[in-house]
């Protein structure tokens, strides 16, 4: 049972003695076997919450123990006080407090980590007892530690007191006190600030205070201001913080304290204090410039955080102080300096990104004023925002090629994200500056590209184009008169760098909607895009741009279609692009072909698809192996992506202008949809392929995806294939049941089950799939939670869409119902969710589908039992809303029987949990039966009851619920 030096941690060996705790800790820290470590960890967690913890925690704190053991003792104390406060009798509060004070005094010169845990434990005790049982807690802490004695030197006592005062507000922020107590305790702590503030001030102003003490004072202030200490009451301390910024040792903690104080939501009430702080912040400009010159990024970062904290949190307050507009403008310019700080983010500087939110905030506040007031502010701030655009585009520039090549992949990724943030900011700024911003950018780009004396660097050109792209990508620039000129400039750019080429592509993509309104420009632009398509380095930008153009401009592309298809075919055959870009390219071709006459679609499809079909035939005849599997999945993916967007039914919708008079368009030609023609041609090949690969779920999934995408896109146009696809699906599923076949069956059922001519094949498929899945249930469904999940979704869809399916004699409704009961007990949350949805739909059709009514009348009690079992603790708490839906549905559709079933199901003692009393069960039952209209109330009742069943009601875990 037990080896020497090792703790036996079976559930029966819960002998939580000091000796065993020490053994377990030794095992946790030093045993090389990970399994033993995990066992020790588990056992120690149980020990920590056990009643014996009160005995061993004090013993573990004795001076001769090592710090790891002492730490566990202190942590156990904190756990007992913070989580199990209600277990402590009130007559023991005083002795517990005294012991903790005494231990903190002992450890003030000992291990820092143990001292901190003891301080946190005392803080937790204070929060649980103030203000009633321990009024003036903070004043008493200050008094106790300022008294001489205990042989502990004054500095150690002072540091211990500061540690205690620092962790007190932190413990309050993380404590799970009930809401009403939170308010009381916050108020009590607010009153205690009067005891803390003079102490901190005195320690900061004393010239003989050691650096370590001052740093701890600043940390303590930082912690307290987060409790919304009124800004005017910490004003003098903040001035001391500004002085401390000159001391490199105190700089970081001083920054933290100032930023926390300025960021408090309440701080804007103290206008006079804020106005005194503005010059203090402006006074940091010399220190900031000095830091920039010396390359001291930490100091730059800290001063920038302070400047932004004041500007961002107090924007409106400071804007409204019209007599002080110049000092606020100076603050805005100081933030502009931080935005444009020299160097490339994130390699030479990390400051500029901190300022971007400020520019949003300032703009929001200015634009929210009434018109007259806004006009005045815009006169002052529009020039500032034009300057901001220049600064941001400068910051967005790539470094020299050689420098960029030396960056790590992580730095490159951070720079990419930073440029996205700049792009978002520019898009926002456009709302303030409007069309003038585009003209401004256009003029700059024009000057840059036409200056023959001084050729522009690609970085400069790219940044200006990036500005255009940022705005055009998300905002409607169709009315802008500079876009035609911009298109003209784009064709003049000599693209000699991959980043510039990428941005050219993305800019064209962003203008796709504009090109749809100005198709005459397509002739200039398409050659650029088709040329880029052959460059693997421009894969993402060129393919996504072509896709956007094919989607937005498809009705104007027929003259260019042959060229686009030819170039696309060439790059696909040469395998220039990665798989996902090949799929996008196929989607682009689907959009393009959708706008062509049917005979042209078929001709293009033939030339596009034939090489792949031939390859697929060849692969089908080979012996299955991993490499030809990948090739098969790739080809099937290309086909399904092509069929996703090839939709001739949308030919007329897209060009229709709701404001224009209706135009008579030629009706769609009779005969099958081109996609159906192709699918019918390759159907035999696909069947042959499946016969070889039926065991491989990925290949089956890829085959099903072709049909699923086609069904979704074509909907009723897919009709000619319903019968043969239903038959193939039935054969596939009967041989080897797979989820993708079930999902496709659900899709088919959704669209075609309500059409009389297609009902017979869909009905046959549904019955076959149901029968096969029922046999899986008989053999043991636990190994197939995904099939069970999908099967339940299929049954729910059938009930919702075509409940007549359940009238069939060939369908064993009772067996399906019992499968649902089993599925409710699965550990996988998605499966239980789908099953609850199935029962909710089933109960709704009790009245109009007799077989369903019969099975519910016979076995409704079993459903109630399964639901109660889940609520009682058998299912994760995240599923309670779904169980509540089933109860609500039962109440709505089977009210008379529900009362009887609930009474019978809840009668056995200990069900659904040993933790609930008969009275609580009766109360739950009555509450449920009362609620036939308010579903959200039923959800609340179920949540309350599940907490009672799990013994969590009123605990910290319930607070997370």
From TrEMBL:
One of its GO terms (molecular function) is small GTPase binding. It is found in: Cytoplasm; Nucleus. It holds the Pfam family TPR_TNPO3_IPO13_4th. Signal peptide: none annotated. Residues 40-106 form the Importin N-terminal domain. InterPro entries: ARM-like, ARM-type_fold, Exportin-1/Importin-b-like, Importin-beta_N, Importin_beta-like_NTR, Importin_rep_1, Importin_rep_2, Importin_rep_3. GO terms for cellular component: cytoplasm; nucleus. The keyword Repeat applies. The keyword Flavoprotein does not apply. Keywords: Cytoplasm, Nucleus, Protein transport, Repeat, Transport. GO terms for biological process: protein import into nucleus. PANTHER family: IMPORTIN-13, TRANSPORTIN 3 AND IMPORTIN 13. Interacts with UBC9, RAN, RBM8A, eIF-1A and PAX6. Belongs to the importin beta family. This is Importin-13.
């Amino acid at each position: 049972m037990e080896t020497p030096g090792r703790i036996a941690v079976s559930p029966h060996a819960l002998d939580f003695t000091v000796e065993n705790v020490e053994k377990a800790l030794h095992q946790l820290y030093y045993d090389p076997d990970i399994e033993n470590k995990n066992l020790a960890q588990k056992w120690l967690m149980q020990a920590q919450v056990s009643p014996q913890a009160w005995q061993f925690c004090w013993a573990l704190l004795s001076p001769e123990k090592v710090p790891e053991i002492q730490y566990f003792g202190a942590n156990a104390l904190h756990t007992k006080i913070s989580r199990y406060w209600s277990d402590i009798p009130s007559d023991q509060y005083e002795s517990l407090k005294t012991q903790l004070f005494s231990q903190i005094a002992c450890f003030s010169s000992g291990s820092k980590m143990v001292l901190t845990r003891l301080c946190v434990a005392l803080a937790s005790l204070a929060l649980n007892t103030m203000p009633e049982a321990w009024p003036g807690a903070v004043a008493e802490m200050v008094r106790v530690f300022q008294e001489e004695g205990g042989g502990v030197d004054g500095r150690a006592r002072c540091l211990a007191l500061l540690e205690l005062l620092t962790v007190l507000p932190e413990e309050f922020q993380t404590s799970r006190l009930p809401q009403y107590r939170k308010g009381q305790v916050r108020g009590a702590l607010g009153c205690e600030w009067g005891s803390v503030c003079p102490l901190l001030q005195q320690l900061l102003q004393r010239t003989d205070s050691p650096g370590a003490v001052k740093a701890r004072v600043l940390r303590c202030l930082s912690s307290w201001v987060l409790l919304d200490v009124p800004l005017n009451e910490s004003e003098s301390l903040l001035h001391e913080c500004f002085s401390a910024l000159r001391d490199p040792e105190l700089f970081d903690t001083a920054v933290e304290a100032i930023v926390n104080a300025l960021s408090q939501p309440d701080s804007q009430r103290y206008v006079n204090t804020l106005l005194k702080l503005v010059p203090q912040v402006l006074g940091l400009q010399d220190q900031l410039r000095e830091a920039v010159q010396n390359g001291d990024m930490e100091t730059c970062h800290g001063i920038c955080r302070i400047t932004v904290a004041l500007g961002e949190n107090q924007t409106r307050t400071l804007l409204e102080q019209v007599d002080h507009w110049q000092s606020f403008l100076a603050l805005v310019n100081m933030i502009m300096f931080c935005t444009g700080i020299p160097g490339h983010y994130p390699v030479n500087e990390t400051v500029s990104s901190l300022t971007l939110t400020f520019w949003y905030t300032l703009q929001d506040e200015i634009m929210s004023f009434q018109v007259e007031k806004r006009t005045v502010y815009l006169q002052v701030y529009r020039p500032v925002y034009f300057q901001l655009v220049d600064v941001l585009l400068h910051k967005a520039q790539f470094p020299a090629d050689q420098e960029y090549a030396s960056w790590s992949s992580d730095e490159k990724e951070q720079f990419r994200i930073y440029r996205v943030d700049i792009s978002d900011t520019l898009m926002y700024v456009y709302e303030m500056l409007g069309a003038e911003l585009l003209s401004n950018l256009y003029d700059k780009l024009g000057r840059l590209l036409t200056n023959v004396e001084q050729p522009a660097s690609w970085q400069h050109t790219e940044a200006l184009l990036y500005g255009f792209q940022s705005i055009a990508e998300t905002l409607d620039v169709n009315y802008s008169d500079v876009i035609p000129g911009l298109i003209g400039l784009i064709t003049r750019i000599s693209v000699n760098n991959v980043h510039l080429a990428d941005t050219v592509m993305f800019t064209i993509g962003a203008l796709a909607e504009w090109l749809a309104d100005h198709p005459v420009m397509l002739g200039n632009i398409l050659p650029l895009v088709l040329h880029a398509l052959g460059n693997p380095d421009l894969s993402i930008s060129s393919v996504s741009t072509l896709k956007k153009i094919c989607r937005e401009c498809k009705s104007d592309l027929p003259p260019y279609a042959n060229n686009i298809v030819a170039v696309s075919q060439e790059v696909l055959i040469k395998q220039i692009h990665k798989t996902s870009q090949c799929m996008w390219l196929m989607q682009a071709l689907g959009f393009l072909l959708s706008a062509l006459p049917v005979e042209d679609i078929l001709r293009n499809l033939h030339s596009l698809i034939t090489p792949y079909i031939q390859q697929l035939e060849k692969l089908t005849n080979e012996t299955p192996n991993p490499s030809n599997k990948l090739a098969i999945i790739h080809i099937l993916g290309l086909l399904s992506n092509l069929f996703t967007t090839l939709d001739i039914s949308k030919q007329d919708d897209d060009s229709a202008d709701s404001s224009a008079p209706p135009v008579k368009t030629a009706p769609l030609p009779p005969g099958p949809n081109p996609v159906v023609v192709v699918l019918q041609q390759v159907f035999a090949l696909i069947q042959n392929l499946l016969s070889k690969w039926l065991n491989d779920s990925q290949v089956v999934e890829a085959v099903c995806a072709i049909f699923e995408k086609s069904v979704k896109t074509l909907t009723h146009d897919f009709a000619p294939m319903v019968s043969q696809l239903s038959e193939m699906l039935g054969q596939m599923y009967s041989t080897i049941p797979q989820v993708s076949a079930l999902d496709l069956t659900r899709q088919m059922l959704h669209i075609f089950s309500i059409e009389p001519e297609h009902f017979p094949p869909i009905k046959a498929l549904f019955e076959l799939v149901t029968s096969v899945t029922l046999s899986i249930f008989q053999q043991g469904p636990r190994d197939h939670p995904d099939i069970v999940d999908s099967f339940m979704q299929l049954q729910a869809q059938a009930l919702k869409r075509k409940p007549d399916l359940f009238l069939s004699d060939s369908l064993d409704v009772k067996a399906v119902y019992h499968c649902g009961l089993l599925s409710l007990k699965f550990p996988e949350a998605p499966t239980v969710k789908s099953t609850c949805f199935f029962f909710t739909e089933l109960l709704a059709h009790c009245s109009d589908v007799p077989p369903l009514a019969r099975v519910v009348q016979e076995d409704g009690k079993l459903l109630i039992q399964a639901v109660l079992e889940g609520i009682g603790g058998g299912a994760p708490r995240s599923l309670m809303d779904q169980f509540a839906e089933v109860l609500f549905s039962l109440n709505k559709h089977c009210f008379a029987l529900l009362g009887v079933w609930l009474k019978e199901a809840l009668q056995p003692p200990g069900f659904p949990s040993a933790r609930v009393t008969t009275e609580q069960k009766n109360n739950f039952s009555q509450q449920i039966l009362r609620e036939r209209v308010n579903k959200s109330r039923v959800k609340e009742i179920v949540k309350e009851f599940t907490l009672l069943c799990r013994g969590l009601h009123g605990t910290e875990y319930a607070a997370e619920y």
